[in-house]
Amino acid sequence: MKNWLLVPLVFILNFVLAVLAFSISVGIWQSLMYGDVSGIFFSSFLHCLYLILPIACIISIFAVYVFMMRHSEKRGLSFLALIISFALFFALIIPLVYSQGEKINQAFNSKEKVSIDDKHLETFIERPVFVQAAGSIVRPFVHDIYEQYKASYTSYLIFSGSIFLLIFSLWVFTTITEWKIVNFTLLPLLLILILYAYSYIRTDDFILSIEDVLPFAIPKFWIRPVLFCLAALLIYIYTMMLLLVRRAKKMPKKQKIKKQKINVPKVKKPKVPKIKMPKPVKPKKGEKIKEEFETFIPDNLGDFGEADIDA
Questions:
Q1: How far apart are CA 288 and CA 294, in angstroms?
Q2: 21 shares its domain with 95
Q3: Which of 24, 168, 224, 302 has its CA 20 to 30 A from that of 208?
C-alpha cells in the first residue's frame, strides 16, 4: 500500500487517541476528586472532549509530520491528503461537536461537586506542577476558539484558520537538521512555545500596545489573526528559500567540456644529405699563361701560309 494513502488513517487515529487520552484522564481525575457525585465521570469526559478538540487536531498534524519524516517519498500527495483530512475535521466535525457544547456545559455545571474529605487521596490525585502549568496555557487557547464559534461560524473559521496556518508552517522544523530525533523533539517544544506566547497575546495589554504602534485603526478581532498569518508567512518564505538552496546543492554541476588536444607525434623531416661538390681546382698562374700561349700562338708556324699570316 502506498504510504501517502495512510496519511488520513494516521491523522484520524491520532486524533481519536488524543481526545480519548485527555478526556478519560480528566474524567478519572474528576470522579476521584468528587467521588460521591453520580455521573461525574461521563459529564467530565464530555466536557473535556469538546474543548480539547483543537489540541487533538494539532497533535494529529504533528503525528503526520513524524510519519512523513519516516516516509518522505511523494511528499506532495502526503500533504494533499493531510490538508483534506484536516479540512474535514476543522470545518465539519469540530463545529458539529461545538454545537452541543452548551448542553454539555449545562450537564456538567448542574452536578453538585463536593470535594472528598481524604487528605491522603487528595495528595495522591494532586496534579503535578507541569500538568498545572500545561493546563494554565492550554485552557485559554481552547476556550477562545470555542468562544469564537459561539460568536459566529465565520469568526471561528478566520480565527482558528490563522492559528492552524501557523501550525502547518512548522513543517520546516522536521527537516531543519539532519538529525531526525532533534527535529522530532522540536515539534512539542514549538507547540508549548506557541501556547505560552498565546497566553500573552490574548491579553488586553498586548492588544493596546499593538494599537498604539499601528498608524491606522483596525478592529480588535483582526489583530491576532493578522499576526498569526504574518508569522506563518515569514516561516513559509524561509521554508521556500531553504528548499531552493538544498535543491540547488543537489543538482549536478555543469562540467566544462575541455577540448582534448590530440597529440600527433611529430614526424621528423628527413634531412636532405648535403652533397659536397668538389671544389674546382684553380690552375696555377704559370699553367694558365702556358695554355693561352698554346691556344693562340702555335709553336709551329710552318703550317700557316703567307695569306693566313697576313690575315
A1: 10
A2: yes
A3: 168
